[in-house]
Design brief:
Chain A is built from ten helices and no strands. With 190 residues, chain A is mostly helical. Chain A folds into two domains: 12-66, Homeodomain-like (Arc Repressor Mutant, subunit A), CATH 1.10.10.60; 83-188, Tetracycline Repressor, domain 2 (Orthogonal Bundle), CATH 1.10.357.10. Chain A has helices spanning 12-29, 36-43, 47-53, 57-66, 83-99, 101-116, 118-128, 131-140, 154-171, 179-188. The C-D interface holds C 30-32, 108-109, 111-112, 114-116, 118, 121-122, 124-125, 146-147, 149, 152-153, 155-157, 159-168, 170-173, 179, 182-183, 185-187, 189-190 and D 30-32, 108-109, 111-112, 114-116, 118, 121-122, 124-125, 146-147, 149, 152-153, 155-157, 159-168, 170-173, 179, 182-183, 185-187, 189-190. The first copy, chain A, binds a DNA duplex (31 and 31 nucleotides) through residues 4-11, 14, 35-38, 40, 44-49, 51-52.
DNA sequence: ATATAACCGAGACGGTACGTCACGTCTTCAC
DNA sequence: GTGAAGACGTGACGTACCGTCTCGGTTATAT
């Protein structure tokens, strides 16, 4: 029976406080300007308590992600049977999030972390963007659209959609009316 | 009478030395771990000489980009009349660059800068990726493929291609045989 | 009905272990570099067990002193009737202790504690150096030496002897042949 | 021709500021409770500026000593021809300094440093206490007092006097009327 | 030709944040 | 209630870089 040592147990309150402080500061001031001292101070926690449980700034952010504190929209692709409509709905939701100053800042922070931290980067496509659900939805749509014949490169289509989103965020290009539709058209065809 | 100040002129040697040192350090140790003091030391240059001419770390990197020191592949999309083949060729070249450890590291650094620095971010799609040439090529191909009818969302197609590239780089997904073809198929159709 | 509380009694083993660990670490690494965590770890004891019984680091050292763990020489001044010989014998013993690297280090630690901690400082002359026995011996020698007439400033003579010892230890001056004799001559006269 | 490098020169203002802050804090709060961060803050100076020029806390104090900022009494033994009177005068001056709360605190700090730092300890007897002048004065007095015959152990007499002073300071024994005289009598005889 | 001014290298300066160590308090479980 | 273990908030440690500034030395005009 492992892990039966006595002694105090990790403080869940401190953990939550740190994660919440991280999200707040990330939204307020961006990824640089985010310091561990700042997190600890805002969380009302000793610096050592942070270092005891997380090896790096990016790992805190990774945990925020897993907890769903960073992307407070549900990223699952809907399934009404109409793949065009579903993708458009899904993209519109995401575009809506990226349209807010705060959402865009947080998402860019996320990309900065991904660029820096291998673990976050590797998990970006699947865990973060839930691309899995996108792939699944696309698979189930095979045959229902002319551009989705048997053997269509589903993963690459998913990459293209998510990647376009990422690129827009990095490029600070404002979202406009009809962008979601146009993007869907670009990859699924007219 | 403009520009009648006296004194010596900006040292081109110092400038080159700084840019080169930046590229070297970026490839060696990544974007974080890149310090201005480190650049100056490696370049054999005083810190002030850096600060005199560049306002920030990211602006040095931006200049490296413009000088073509960072992405030593020519990014222009070829034009043989066959849009599929041209895109595949272009993507294969880029994939080749991102397949090298050094190229992937530099490109990720670039994305980190873009996530952080508004100017670099805004220029990412056009200046960095030369998406303009991609758009132009796609425009000229309208009508030559079933998925590129009149009024096709060319910009979004370009976004999708470049974005997929970016996403792959961030996600550290290794490139495999046929990836370029599949990606082209994903956006241009079968 | 005094002392009828329940529960186990203070562990003598823990107490001894802590005191011994303190002496060891003091001799090994000096007064600074001595930490309570280090003592507890070396003693195989919880930190709280230390804090439960001692208010401060210096009080542990004070207890080591009282237990005779720090100055393992008997400091009582002998009494053969010949005050010169007795003082010389006593000083030679002490010099011998201070000549060892370990003894000198421990004694300096003691002085550092005395400089810092009022209680230890106040007890230094009497409890630590047993100056009381020195005074007594000097008192009993009054009249037996030309420099010890009736009314001789016995306390000051004791101070002078002990003080000279302390000074030598602080000044890291090595002891040489005949030093004990010369010091006795200095205060008792030729 | 050594040391001809260009560039900024060490700031004398910063140096003075640091030394002065050290003295002030030492007198205010004692040797422990003295932190380098505290010194830097009080001096209005970056921490690195302290670390650039001094390897340790004790070395700052040592420099304060050399600058005469710590012991603001002149420690030279006077020479009127009457050795008893001269020693008494000298001791009275020192006792006066040690009688003030601040003087006693600073002097104890000094002893704590000496106990810890080899360099300061080694210099304690001579540089700090100017025992050299005491020895000289005693040498010149040989033959003028019955206890100072030819061949008297002058160094040991000096040790005894200075040591008694040190011991009193460590033991927190208050100075009383006639103490200086009694101490002189103890080592020079009646 | 000579003064003036901007360049260059070097690096000291006041700062901020880093990641670590130890403090003294506390909480948990076993005895 | 005591003891081993160790998490907690706190604060100082010594280091790395930040961006600004000050040096002595070196060009290049502008007088």
């Amino acid at each position: 029976m492992p892990d039966t040592r006595s002694g105090p147990v990790r403080s869940e309150a401190a953990r939550q406080s740190i994660l919440q402080a991280t999200v707040t500061l990330l939204a307020e001031r961006g990824y640089d300007n985010l310091t561990i001292e700042g997190i600890a101070a805002r969380a009302g926690v000793g610096k050592q308590t942070v270092y005891r449980w997380w090896p790096s700034k990016s790992s805190i952010i990774a945990e925020c992600l897993v907890e769903g504190l960073l992307l407070p929209v549900h990223l699952r692709v809907p399934d009404t049977g109409d793949i065009r409509r579903d993708l458009t709905t899904w993209l519109t939701t995401l575009f809506g999030y990226l349209q807010t100053e705060q959402g865009a800042t947080i998402f860019r922070s996320l990309l900065a972390v991904a660029a820096t931290d291998e673990a976050v980067g590797s998990g970006l496509r699947d865990s973060v963007m839930h691309t899995q659900s996108l792939s699944t939805r696309l698979h189930s749509a095979i045959g229902t659209a002319p551009n989705l014949p048997e053997g269509a490169p589903v993963e690459e289509i998913a990459d293209a959609l998510v990647g376009a989103l990422v690129l827009r965020n990095l490029a600070r290009r404002p979202i406009e009316e009809g962008d979601a539709e146009r993007l869907v058209e670009a990859v699924i065809g007219p």
